[in-house]
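Morning F.,

Quick status update on the modeling queue. The single chain you submitted on Monday has been processed. Sequence for confirmation:
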Amino acid sequence: MKIVSTIAEVRAQVKAWKKEGKRVGFVPTMGYLHEGHESLIKRAVAENDVAVVSIFVNPMQFGPTEDLESYPRDLEADAKLCEAAGAKLIFHPEPEEMYKDGFCSFVDMSGLTNALCGLSRPVHFRGVCTVVSKLFNIVMPDRAYFGEKDAQQLAVIKRMVTDLNMDIEIVGCPIIREADGLAKSSRNTYLSEESRKQAVILSKAIFMGKKMIEDGERNPETVKKAMCELISTMPLATIDYVEIVDRNTMKNVDLIQGEILCAIAVNIGGEARLIDNFHLSV
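Structure tokens below.
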């Protein structure tokens, strides 16, 4: 496995692979990799001839009060995980490599980005779309792999690829959870011992809401109210949102039917903003 830091090195390697007729799988990440990322890499390895992982903490998708500087980083540990999972190349650029002096071109989206995380993080998805489109242009993968924990991001990327006629298959992969149910996240490391104990309320609310719908509840307000009440039993939990939306449009629904997404965002102890979700076809 190789680790490279320049766009030219990535393009040269991918060009050589494609000249050999190899299919390229790609996993874009911000690093500090965990078992969730590992599952994406292993799937990319299984379904393609070679797998590329990018590790880049993208400054464009962080707001001015967010955790850009404190976001955890550990390239050595990340490299070990990538190599063990079967990746052949890590692209680890500096911000100056991705955003040259005078950079002023962006990929923006309306509609799908106007709800959920887009409301509380207004610059986030412009940063995501811009960096992912750049990475796609650099790596030129056949398939790219994203976790379903970031359900809105997955929907946004799929829409961007469709709207901009990118010849890439986007593959969503299931949420990987801790033994107690908490969804794997690099930001879980921010949590103190007590906050970590209380954070499990996210997955408990998710599992409860899903069961309510599976048992026949079709009023989204009833499900959301029950989930909010459960989350609020934890004194360190501050709800950003609990929403039930159409999975394809991210618009709120009046009746639970068709392809729905229930997504939540909760701040735990002022230490970490965590997200979780479930989706169902009703």
